[in-house]
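Module 6 notes. Inverse folding takes a fixed backbone as the condition and produces residue identities as the prediction. Think of it as a translation problem where the source language is geometry and the target language is the twenty amino acids. Below is one complete input and output pair. Work through it position by position during the lab.
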């Protein structure tokens, strides 16, 4: 199988589960963005047939380092190599674990090629939901979500995979930890730092998704993701803050039943579920001891303080490419926040202004979408220059 984004947090958890089942799984393709040393270390350990570095200027260094480490495998470089690897004969399964819009083309390529697509890269669904669903249908493969909330919902839905209405589903309830800043006021949020934002109370994750969790944009992206993956109307998707992160999401049925998936907050559960589905395998995760667990609390999210969640619902309702515009503006704003050039509350301001500047257009094809993504990034950068 291919692990795209192998050097990241999801990549590491995936390779950990794979290594527990050597007779069952093999990582035949590994990719990284720029971290040659980390990619070489993974190649030494997992002996793939192909290593891809997304930054094409680093191909030569990768080749020399792999040779020096005694690893013999093919080398690919650049986005084209990623796309070819995702669709190529070296894998039947693709773990899409690249962060952000950078994962879009390889995710779509895997779907179009009929691979079993284990999806962590939520940004690609947010940007191109309808295109991804078409690619999956045409490719004839299947998608199993790795994002813990969607994996939980997948587990709580009937195995028939019939449309929600026909399955008696009334609502999908996505749980949110509330992030490190739950309960803070806007005044308190004004001065929070990237280091504080990246210190998530329950999960260890990459920096971008950590900031998204702190602004609640992560939950907003997940609402849009749930809309596409499960065919759920916006008004049937609800967000509930659950600070313990033990209930990973729920499905409400017409008869009043609520089905939930619980477990310790460790992504290896969702990853192992997706890897083995419909079977079950050991994931290395400590079982949840409910008698020793803290009381489970639930509350409604504060959409006035955490504007990003409200903006994501707004983009979903606007339809067309509004979610792609939201995502692009957010990626630029989060980068600026992490670089220390934009205050925390500025993230929502930038996203809101870019959404207002670029009204939604219909999603036609991937090239038009990538062009709109670029336009939205330029608009966000212009706003950032004005703000500095
Ligand atoms: P991360 O930052 O730890 O890792 C990102 C990976 O993507 C790295 O391997 C990096 O080399 C690669 N990458 C970055 N930019 C790239 C580019 N331009 N081209 C090619 N490759 C690039 O991120 P993560 O936390 O592992 O998250 C990965 C994805 O999974 C994100 O979409 C995130 O929203 C989603 N996700 C993560 C978690 C989690 O617990 N970490 C949970 C649910 C969903
Ligand atoms: Mg999630």
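Target side of the pair, the amino acids:
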């Amino acid at each position: 199988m291919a692990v795209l984004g192998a050097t990241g947090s999801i990549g590491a958890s995936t390779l950990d589960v794979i290594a527990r089942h050597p007779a069952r799984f093999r990582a035949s393709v590994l990719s990284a963005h720029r971290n040659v040393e980390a990619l070489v270390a993974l190649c030494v350990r997992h002996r793939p047939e192909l290593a891809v570095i997304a930054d094409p200027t680093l191909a030569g260094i990768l080749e020399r380092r792999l040779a020096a480490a005694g690893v013999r495998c093919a080398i690919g470089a650049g986005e084209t190599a990623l796309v070819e690897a995702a669709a190529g004969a070296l894998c039947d399964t693709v773990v899409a674990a690249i962060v952000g819009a950078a994962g879009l083309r390889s995710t779509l390529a895997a779907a179009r090629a009929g691979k079993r697509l284990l999806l962590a890269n939520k940004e690609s669904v947010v940007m191109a939901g309808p295109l991804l669903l078409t690619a999956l249908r045409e490719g004839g493969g299947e998608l199993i979500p790795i994002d813990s909330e969607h994996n939980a919902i997948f587990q709580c839905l009937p195995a028939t995979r019939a449309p929600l209405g026909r399955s008696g589903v009334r609502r999908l309830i996505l749980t949110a930890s509330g992030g490190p800043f739950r309960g803070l006021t806007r005044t308190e949020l004004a001065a929070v730092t990237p280091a504080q934002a990246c210190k998530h109370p329950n999960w260890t994750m990459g920096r971008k998704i950590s900031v998204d969790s702190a602004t609640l944009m992560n939950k907003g992206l997940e609402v849009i993701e749930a809309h596409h993956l499960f065919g759920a109307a916006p008004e049937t998707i609800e967000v509930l803050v659950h600070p313990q992160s033990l209930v990973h999401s729920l499905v409400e049925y017409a008869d009043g039943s609520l089905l939930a998936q619980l477990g310790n907050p460790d992504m290896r559960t969702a990853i192992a579920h997706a890897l083995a589905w419909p079977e079950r395998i050991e994931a290395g995760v400590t079982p949840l001891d409910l008698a020793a667990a803290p009381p489970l609390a639930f509350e409604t999210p504060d959409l006035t303080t955490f504007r990003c969640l409200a903006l994501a619902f707004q983009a979903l309702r606007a339809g067309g490419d509004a979610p792609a515009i939201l995502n692009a503006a957010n990626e630029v704003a989060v980068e600026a926040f992490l670089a220390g050039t934009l205050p925390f509350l500025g993230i929502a301001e930038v996203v809101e202004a870019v959404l207002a500047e670029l009204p939604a257009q219909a999603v036609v094809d991937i090239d038009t979408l990538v062009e709109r993504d670029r336009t939205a990034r330029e608009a966000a950068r212009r706003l950032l220059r004005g703000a500095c």
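Reference fact for the lab report: The mean pLDDT is 97.
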